[in-house]
Design goal:
- It is a single chain.
- Helices cover 24% and strands 24% of the residues.
- The relative contact order is 0.14.
- Helix 6 packs across helix 7.
- The strands form two sheets. The protein has a five-stranded antiparallel β-sheet.
- The chain is flat and about 75 Å long.
- By secondary structure, it is of the alpha+beta class.
- It is built from seven helices and nine strands.
């Protein structure tokens, strides 16, 4: 609940996940991105939420900082540019903010984008076969940011194209069809194998997976 309350303060910025793509993005950006022939490349102004301090108890606004990065189509270091549409705000995020290293994932480094899974739209691509423009993808660590830049082959393995023309809403892949929902289903049906007459106890600390297990 604390992490959700903290991010609510950034509600307008998080909800504003529409692509900030334009020809140039103001005088300063145009000067920086002017080509030799005097024309301007398409740019993406990416807003990112950085973790700048380890929370002491309840996270507060001062633990975070907004940052901007300008990405040009003329840059050579990107493979896919994604526009985040849905950001998953999960209880696990509070643990990722701590400096402890004995978790299933390393902590978020100070000065780095706050980790989060996202549903995103491909807006620029250099791999039109696997990730064509306008296709939707699930990003394992898209982050709390307006856009996600895929720069390496390893990072590209962390994005998964969603089925086209599906009756399932894309945000379902962050919940019932995501890692928590699948963990809940297979944990209950394949491992737990409950039988008629049995009582199943689900911990209140089980988070999203526990919620899905209870609904099974």
């Amino acid at each position: 609940a604390h992490i959700v309350q903290t991010f609510v303060h950034y509600r307008e910025e998080i909800i504003y996940l529409s692509c900030n793509i334009k020809m140039g993005a103001g005088k300063d950006v145009k000067e920086d991105l002017m080509r030799k022939d005097g024309s301007f490349g398409t740019v993406c102004v990416m807003k990112r939420m950085l973790l700048v301090r380890r929370p002491a108890g309840k996270p507060v606004i001062e633990d975070f900082e907004w940052d901007e990065e300008v990405i040009s189509e003329d840059d050579n270091d990107w493979l896919v540019i994604l526009e985040n549409m849905y950001v998953s705000i999960d209880p696990a995020m509070r643990g990722w903010m701590d400096g402890a290293k004995n978790s299933y994932l390393p902590p978020v480094a100070l000065g780095s984008v706050m980790r989060a899974s996202t549903i995103a739209r491909v807006i620029k691509t250099r791999d039109d076969t696997a990730f064509p423009e306008n296709s939707l993808v699930l990003v394992d660590s898209g982050g709390v940011q307006t856009h996600c830049i895929i720069r390496t082959a390893f990072e590209k393995k962390m994005i998964h194209r969603l089925p086209e023309n599906s009756i399932v809403p894309p945000q379902a892949y962050l919940s019932v069809l995501g890692i928590t929902g699948l963990t809940a289903y297979f944990g209950m049906m394949e491992k737990g194998k409950p039988r008629a007459g049995e009582t199943v106890l689900i911990s209140g600390a089980a988070g999203g997976a526990g919620r899905g297990a209870a609904q099974n």
